[in-house]
Amino acid sequence: MSVPDKSVIVEERPEEGVAVIRLNRPDVLNALNMEVRRALAERFTALADDPSVKAVVLAGSEKAFAAGADIAEMKDLGVVEQYQRHAERLWRAIAAYPRPVIAAVRGYALGGGCELAMHADIIIAGQGAQFGQPEIRVGIMPGAGGTQRLLRAVGKYKAMKMLLTGKPVGAEEALSMGLVSEMVEDDAVETTAIAMAKTIAGMPPIAVEQIKEVVLAGQDAPLDTALALERKAMQMLFASADQKEGMAAFVEKRRPAYKGE
Ligand code: DAK
User: Which CATH topology does 205-252 take?
Assistant: First the structure.
């Protein structure tokens, strides 16, 4: 499905099983206004119910993945208005998407843009990408997981430095910190992300979903609980036709044909 170019997000289907959701406000470096956030939530909610899409690539434009929440829209808000927006519900729709999301980051991923990238499961960054949480410089702090997801990704001391100075890090540093899965040339970011999404789309879908669910649910659980969760999910996969198919194909030395059953 495609939506008109004037939309704040554009959806593309470059490969079978792969959707690209592209932020489309390049003039303001893809600043995340409420319209964008609502559109993202709407698309991720719809795609969650569309099993034909097996992986999503979240992309921006050449200069920016997203330079943060829209400061112009936000600057005069009062606390009650901020509360009543319930933006957390919109972010939750992205976090709740059950299949893999790959962020394809070129240029700036700042503030809410960095938080959006951290909602993804895999981050592919161009060499010129910059990641940062500069909210402190405009008198606020991260509000969509920037303190918590960053902490979990890079540890306390790197996170504190980024959060308290607001200074961005380049792609190479982000890679070495564990904030980025893979760094490539800027013009290879999207092709790399789409190729990876295509690889994932060819995997057994139930196993893919279970891996995502167990990694995310397990990361904050006590280790024994998380390991039990992993074990139960793995055992459950033995009830799937795809497990039988995958192992039969291995033994018969042929390519498996997964059905998501
Ligand atoms: N908001 C609105 N407009 C933005 C923007 C932003 N975040 N970032 C850039 N723009 C606009 C600029 O105003 C400019 O517009 P015009 O002047 O052309 O009309 C255009 O994009 C190009 O930007 P620049 O001219 O500034 O471009 P430069 O290359 O010189 O600089 C830059 C690029 C990325 C260094 C600079 O634009 C910049 O510092 N941008 C702001 C970055 C920032 O502070 N981001 C954090 C915003 S606060 C919440 C959850 C999350 C949040 C809030 C609430 N809840 C759950 C309640 C998140 C907050 C944030 O992200």
Answer: Lyase 2-enoyl-coa Hydratase; Chain  A, domain 2 (1.10.12)
pTM of the model: 0.97
To test the pocket of ligand 1, the residue of 24, 27, 65, 71 to mutate (highest count of ligand atoms within 8 Å of its CB) is 71
> What distances in angstroms separate CA 40 from CA 21, 23, 103, one per listed residue?
8, 9, 13
Q: Which residues lie across from 182 on neighbouring strands? A: 124
pLDDT tens sequence across 209-248: 999 999 999 999 999 999 999 999 999 999 999 999 999 9
Q: Whose CA is nearest to atom 20 of ligand 1?
A: 28
Residues assigned a catalytic role: 69, 112, 115, 135
Right CATH for 9-201 from 3.40.50.1220, 2.40.50.140, 3.30.870.10, 3.90.226.10: 3.90.226.10
Distance in angstroms (rounded) separating the CA atoms of residues 215 and 43? 23
